[in-house]
Design brief:
Elements lengths: L8 H15 L6 H8 L4 H6 L3 H20 L8 H15 L1 H8 L19 H12 L3 H23 L7 H22 L7
Amino acid sequence: MPPKIRISKEEIGRQAFELVRRQGIDALTAKSLARALNCSTQPIFWWFGTMQEVTDCVIRQAKNLFAEYVRRSDADSHAFKAIGLNYIAFAKDEKELFKLLFMRRRADAADTPDIVNSEENSPFILEAVRAESGLSEDDAKRVFRELWLFSHGIATMIATATADFGDRAIRQMLSDVYRGVLLHIESTGDRSDRR
């Protein structure tokens, strides 16, 4: 009779996630994960064929946590501003997961990372912009892209300990950029739906 498997795939995935959450993706090796699980590497490779599969599992969990952050509401802010604040809060609270999702070289890099522009997150984010501003979908995408780039800069500085800003300063900066982009679109008549 084969030995009973005592460590579940879910437990391995959970431990891998926590390891990356605390120490970063470079700390995730078969040995370090086995040490965290207090076992040999055999159960890891029983459930996951390769360490890339373990990494993919960690990335899925990180994306799920990020999606929870993005959807948090903030009674003191408009929905779209709350999304920017939540993005920055994710970088502040989950530095290593933020780096994993947004600060590593990717072969599939596009205008915006897939995680933000995903089927799960994009409609929610764009609807928040459109509901507040009455903009067309194209203009809402433009506002989103420009505010996301600004938010990403702040979040990156926080995640790498390059700079730190108080919540009040962050709120003010996001408001200024949001209003500035809207004002530019309105004052120049540079609206996507008029082109």
